[in-house]
Specification:
Blueprint (H helix, E strand, L loop, with lengths): L14 H18 L11 H8 L3 H13 L4 E2 L5 E2 L5 E5 L7 H6 L5 E12 L2 H7 L6 E11 L2 E11 L8 H5 L4 H9 L3 E12 L2 H7 L6 E11 L4 E9 L4 E6 L28 E4 L1
Parallel strand pairs: 3-10
Antiparallel strand pairs: 1-2, 4-5, 5-6, 6-9, 7-8, 8-9, 10-11
């Protein structure tokens, strides 16, 4: 692909406007060059020559992108597109417990409780949880963190009859909701259905994730079942588009095996997390 030179003169223009424009051009250029997380971006000199602007303007644009977590500097090695912070499994037979998913990448999982209430299920939630309209549910909204960096906002709907006595204080110090539900209420999880789509991020979730309002994000809806095939959680998850990817497996037809401590285990077969089972990353 022939190199394309873009003239973006910073003579007499608003300094801030030129830097923002340079930032936009860098964002567009990287995928055009086929770059993916973990790749080193072109040098400041190369970008300045390509865009026809000063290296100082390019440096300020990159500085802002680094501060926003969109790029990262690695000493004298250069500036890189950050690795995806969280890779979430998409499988009907594999645990989606975030606390362990984050930990397996060498990161410290965290959670901030945003909202907790007992409510009545509307028709949409009731249908998914196999409840009567208006039946009591617990609604839990949490901001999930990886090394203190927010990467998703999750809203869980739990049938109240499955978690009698659950209160907000129970979640304050619990690293994993699934572990709490298993240990205190005896809920043993077996599988989950899921759907992932790109959607415009609502204002509240955008502010929590640090992205623009209505910016595209990865929206996951999931229904989790126990070993008796009863739905025990309906989950809505807004995921940061640059910090989360989803990975699916070809293991779904086999008996459940799980490397995740929050779910049931089986000694049959190999771990679904093995390289042979990976299908694709989204």
């Amino acid at each position: 692909m022939p190199e394309q030179r873009i003239e973006l003169s910073d003579n007499g223009a608003s300094r801030g406007a030129v830097e923002r424009r340079a930032e936009t051009l860098i964002r567009r250029l990287l995928p055009d060059l086929g770059m993916t997380p973990g790749d080193r971006i072109p040098s400041e000199r190369d970008l300045a020559d390509r865009f026809g602007i000063s290296r100082m303007t390019v440096r300020k644009a990159i500085d802002h992108m680094v501060a926003q977590g969109q790029l990262e500097r690695r000493g004298t090695a250069g500036t890189f597109i950050p690795e995806v912070a969280v890779v979430r499994p998409l499988s009907k037979r594999v645990s989606t417990a975030i606390s362990e998913v984050v930990g397996r990448r060498g990161k410290l999982p965290g959670s901030k409780l945003l909202f907790f209430e007992q409510s009545r299920a509307d028709a949409h939630v009731a249908r998914r949880l196999h409840l009567d309209d208006g039946e009591n549910v617990i609604v839990v909204k949490r901001l999930r963190l990886s090394d203190s960096m927010p990467f998703c906002v999750e809203i869980s709907y739990l049938p109240s009859r499955s978690v009698p006595g659950l209160v907000a204080a129970d979640l304050m110090g619990a690293p994993s909701l699934y572990a709490l539900l298993r240990d205190r209420f005896g809920l043993t999880f077996a599988k989950s259905d899921f759907q992932v789509a790109v959607a415009a991020t609502p204002e509240t979730e955008a502010n929590l994730l640090g992205i623009a309002i209505e910016a595209p994000a990865l929206l996951m809806r999931s229904l989790v079942y126990d070993v008796a095939d009863r739905p025990v959680e309906y989950l809505i998850s807004w995921n940061h588009p640059e910090r989360v990817s989803f990975e699916s497996y070809r293991y779904d037809g086999s008996p459940l095996t799980s490397v995740y401590t929050d779910w049931t285990r089986s000694n049959q077969g190999e771990s679904p997390g093995s390289a042979a089972d990976r299908h694709e990353t989204t």
